[in-house]
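Need residues for this backbone.
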């Protein structure tokens, strides 16, 4: 029985870390694809990780390439290719640049890995995953965006910091678009089953919500150039693992809604079940009035960005 094949389109900071983390979890054999000018760099990354693995005791084959034909018959494709966000630049500024890249990638994936489960990480996320879906023609269960997993892990880490309790015991989720209008659902957040509202004041919770919404921007400012990569990489790996190992994890992901939460025809962050069938189900629940308003606000932003793609 052959190992699963994972194709990483884009071998920058996020892609390189996905390769490392996937190899350390022995999720499958890995191909890192990038532009011809970066081919040797990708080969170097693959070789470097390969030489680390004997120390870890893991068996995985890695290769770097600029030839899309090498992704042939991949089980999973993770797309991180694109220009990173710079200070002062919002995700929409990236749109046209990254849309051109996504168009090429979608056509290549359709050609060589038509049965793959595709996870889009490139920004602006909500528009890029929509674009991939439209251009590739892939079924909705085969395409998903990595958004809420990252936003929720930021939310979890901030709650753990504020309560001085283990992040392992924090359970929370962020819905909506992957941008400043995202919706941290504090009402349902718990630490070890204890509601967050019993542990922190309204003002403290509001501060955490705001920090979560601008979590990506905070890191962009600190870096001065480029954007986050460790947490985004691990977030994507969690999704890859749930698919490959049929774990049926429930994660907030940008899935195509067709009526869920009153949303129709857009990819937006919702509680998503990922198993061997890809996006197997979207879980729904009743929102209160404030949450409905917030989700409608984020949907308006997503609609606007998607319309700018012209697809």
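Answer:
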């Amino acid at each position: 029985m052959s190992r699963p094949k994972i194709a990483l389109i884009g071998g920058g900071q996020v892609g390189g870390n996905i390769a490392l983390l996937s190899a350390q979890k022995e999720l499958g054999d890995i191909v890192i694809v990038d532009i011809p000018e970066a081919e040797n760099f990708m080969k170097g990354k693959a070789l470097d990780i390969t030489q680390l693995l004997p120390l870890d005791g893991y068996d995985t084959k890695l290769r770097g390439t600029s030839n899309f034909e090498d992704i042939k018959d991949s089980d999973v494709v993770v797309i991180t290719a694109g220009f990173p966000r710079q200070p002062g630049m919002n995700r929409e500024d990236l749109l046209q640049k990254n849309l051109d890249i996504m168009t090429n990638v979608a056509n290549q994936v359709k050609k060589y890995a038509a049965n793959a489960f595709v996870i889009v990480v490139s920004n602006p996320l909500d528009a890029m995953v929509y674009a991939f879906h439209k251009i590739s023609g892939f079924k909705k269960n085969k395409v998903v965006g990595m958004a809420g997993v990252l936003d929720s892990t930021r939310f979890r880490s901030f709650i753990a910091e504020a309560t001085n309790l283990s992040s392992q015991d924090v359970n929370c989720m962020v819905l909506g678009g992957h941008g400043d209008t995202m919706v941290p659902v504090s009402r349902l957040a718990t630490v070890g089953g204890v509601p967050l509202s019993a542990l922190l004041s309204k003002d403290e919770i509001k501060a955490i919500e705001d920090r979560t919404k601008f979590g990506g921007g905070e890191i962009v400012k600190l870096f001065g150039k480029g954007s986050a990569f460790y947490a985004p990489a691990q977030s994507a790996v969690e999704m890859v693992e749930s698919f490959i190992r049929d774990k049926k994890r429930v994660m907030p992901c940008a899935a195509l809604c067709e009526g869920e939460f009153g949303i129709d025809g857009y990819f937006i962050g919702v509680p998503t079940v990922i198993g061997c069938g890809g996006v197997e189900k979207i879980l729904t629940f009743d929102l209160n009035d404030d949450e409905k308003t917030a989700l409608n606000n984020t949907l308006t932003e997503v609609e606007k960005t998607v319309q700018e793609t012209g697809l």
